[in-house]
Amino acid sequence: MSALNYAFTDVRTQTGRVLKHTARNPSTLIMTILLPLIVLLLFNYGFGGALNTHGVKYIDYVVPGIILMGAGYSASATATAVNSDMSEGIIDRFRTMAVHRSSVLSGHVIGSTLRTFTGIALVVVIALPIGFRPTSNPLRWLAAVGIILLMLYAVAWLSAAIGLGAPNASGAASTASLLSMLPFLSGAFVPTSTMPGWLQAFTSNQPMTHIEDTLRGLMMDTPVGDHAWISLVWLAGIALVGYLWSRSLFNKKTAA
Amino acid sequence: MTTASSPPTIVVNGLRKSFAKHVVLDGIDLNVQAGTIFSLLGPNGSGKTTTVRILSTLIPADGGEVIIAGHDLKTDPDGVRRSIAVTGQFSAVDKLLTGRENLLLMARMNRLPKPEIRSRADELLERFDLVDAADKYAVTYSGGMKRRLDLAMSLVGRPGIIFLDEPTTGLDPRSRRTLWEIVRELAADGMTIFLTTQLLEEADQLADQIAVLNHGKLVAEGTPDQLKSMILGGHITLRFADQQQLDAAAAAVADGTPDTEKLSLQVPSDGRVEELRSLLDRLSGLSITVDKLAIHTPDLDDVFFALTGTEVPQQPDEDARHSGVAPENATAGK
Predict the structure, then answer these.
(1) ipTM for the complex?
(2) Which of A57, A92, B193, B292 could disulfide-link B239, Cβ–Cβ 3.0 to 4.6 Å?
(3) pTM of the predicted structure, to 2 decimals
């Protein structure tokens, strides 16, 4: 087998491990699958009626926002899982073996991406019977799926770095949970134009706003404008920074 | 494999490591022969774990040369990794997997041929007495079971060398004995074992060769018997019924040290029966009655005290490593 083959097999084995964890860890399941669903129902039935989204039906407006929430919640789960692998010596164990060096991290990243994508797919499916009416064509749907996967991948690398860098599991979880606050400071739940000017400077320009505008455009078949490429640049940048940061911590830090 | 002519499996020359300004390893040299049990013995903070971390490729050394199974640690760390396995102070098992799944995971990561993966796991479950618990999550295992699973996971890839870093820390005496038995079996199979411990009894029980580490320096090296013979701690203590008998005995035995308070006489001895018999015969010939007799052979406690001037801490500080949270000075090592 070639080195590439080995790398592929190692990463697949580690991804399998992470997916097994998901199925067995209720808190991960709740965080990444159930919570986005609850937020969807809460916003749609609880707040939605009072929110003005410029003539767009609220459920159509909010689904992309819930997708971002899902990505944010997954960050905590991923950071915690990576941190406990570090503190329990699992990462050290694989580091003393002649395996594809970062396969244990790649396993977390890919596992996290697949897990969160499942949660998001569930949100979209549940949103349909309660009124979500995406009007897009399959090609645009495919583009939306691509953006979502890239976003989850980027967030997962960033979370892996947070998990490696944090002193303990609760530190990892609380740092990563800041990511799940970001959608509130964006156009995810209400248009940014309803916010005060000083806040708009942040909310209109942070990556989450661009991503949700892109997703909204792709799903509802409206123009996406510059948001698409700005999102891609942000996500590629976050993925790269997360990856390099993780790799550097992975090579430097050891368990207790 | 234990012949003196076979090349050492682990060769360490002038190993140095500091964390910030704290010198943890101050130039140590080690030679571990293939197929033997080598024990690095020392108290907490002497640098044992740091040594294992460096030798197992986890952290880089500041200086020195290390050759393991013919591979240079600096230029060929993957060669080293292919030859070794490590079992650390706390069990690195995946708690959300079953015992069997942990072994299957290791078999896959060790790239065992597909048909062998399941049989290797079964074989190790059997060998480490984990068959009944094979399909239970490792989180439900007792400390001793976790440690056995941890060791089994390290053996999946059939390493030639295994590092055991304080393998019995936190285990009850019975689990400790079981683990000792396993270590002896591994050595009998021809595996080279590098064991760190702060338990003198453990090194004495298991090791062919012991190196005593204190404050980052090797203070002694040898077989358990060689180390014990390095000091003159052996003696016989004779107890007498009254002062008169003691005085008579003290007069008869020139190198004895009387203790009038305890009515005892301490006589240097290496514990040989011949010597003991002739001493007792001599006293008996002088009609001196020995009330009680005690033999003290030097143990590693005496050795450690003689070499370093400090007592060995008998109760290892285990709070930090069993809380499941890394200690604050995580990178500072032990």
Answers:
(1) 0.89
(2) B292
(3) 0.82
